[in-house]
Design a protein that fits this description.
11 strands, 7-stranded mixed beta sheet, 115 residues, mainly beta
């Protein structure tokens, strides 16, 4: 059974930074495409960033240049470094894994950016 456990969310002022972590259990992050998604109140869940099996990364236009996704194979953990945070980044952030169409989600972690 695959379990993804997110941590690192919290309240931060605009312009600040946070680092989210996603620890994987029951699977190996390096064989999955790992992604971070977010969902703000009243909005659909959207892709923020992903890292593929070969290490390629992709970002939403709204976070490109501010957020960085990274993978630590030894710790079986994926990170999302978020810099220059804006109030519009406020959302619940979810970790996702995709293994050839087989997908799992974490429980989410709240990120709140104040003015």
């Amino acid at each position: 059974q695959v379990q993804l456990v997110e941590s690192g969310g919290g309240l931060v002022q605009a312009g600040g930074s946070l680092r989210l972590s996603c620890a994987a259990f029951g699977t190996t992050v390096s064989v999955n495409t790992m992604g971070w998604y977010r969902q703000a109140p009243g909005k659909q869940r959207e892709l923020v960033a992903l890292i593929t099996r070969d290490g390629s990364t992709n970002y939403a236009d709204s976070v490109n240049g501010r957020f960085t996704i990274a993978r630590d194979n030894a710790k079986n953990t994926v990170y999302l470094q978020m810099n220059s945070l804006k109030p519009e980044d406020t959302a619940v952030y979810y970790c996702n894994r995709d293994y050839y169409g087989l997908r799992s989600w974490g429980q989410g972690t709240q990120v709140t950016v104040s003015e």
